[in-house]
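Recall that a protein's primary structure is simply its ordered list of amino acids. Everything else, from secondary elements to tertiary packing, is in principle encoded there. The following example makes that idea concrete.
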Amino acid sequence: GTVYGGQAPYQWWLSFSSPVTAWSPERGSLSGAGTLSFRGTLGSAGTVLATLSVQDALGANASSSFSITGVEPLTATFLRLLPTAEVGLPVSFPLLLAGGTPPYRVEVQGSDGVSVPLGPAPGGLLEVPWVPRAAGPLALFVSVEDAHGFQAQTNTTVPVAPALNGIIELPTSATDVGPVALSLDVEGGIPPYAGTLNVSGGPTVSFSGPGGTFPETLDLPAPGSLTLSLRVTDALGARAFSSSSLTVHPLPQVALDLSSLKVDVGEALQASLWSGEAPVPGKRPASTSGMGAGRYR
């Protein structure tokens, strides 16, 4: 405040409508007209009425009042129940801003090297968007500044799961018509999982559960080249896709060529064995799995 007029020297004192913790004297004297200052801390948020009273050397009095509005200290707090994160999947972390004077400017630094500036924000609950880059603990460091330049900081650590991946494990790249056993391996992501295995021209198998390996048996009714397509979804809605090829051979066949057969009583009978397709006259039969094509007694 400024004191002038009257007859120097002056005596002055301050009074407040609510408690104030003084950092400097609340009363004093001035040898002549001039400016005086006071520093202190409000005891609570709200409006405080301050009155400066002055008395000069002749006993004349003067006073002036002014109001001070106090706000709660600026704070930034992550909510305790942060969502689970997964590599490559967008997620948002709820950050509560309170106190100070809005609007706020926010900057979030991640241990993965990402920096996200936010604001001006009006206060309250702010969603911090993020796309995790790597699995493991993700540390987030937050710095907040309000309209008057006051600052607050906070930090937290979020576990990040590896990206979802699905793999078709086949025992072989080729098999015969009939049942074939395989396994569907699901890695990363957040369980439980659900998915389908589609076979071109064949059945579609659905599976779900918390485990990472799902054994399946497919019945392959006809020969040909098949494409197996695996689609998997985890608890967060992340999706993964993979495919594999499988060649299906026809079952072995046995035929008896009796067109020129002459057999005496008691003579052993001979037969030819081949697989896949009917024999071509004059051409040696093709070999089969586990047994060579040819003539057998």
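Confidence is low (pLDDT under 50) at residues 285-297. The first strand starts at residue 2 and ends at 3.
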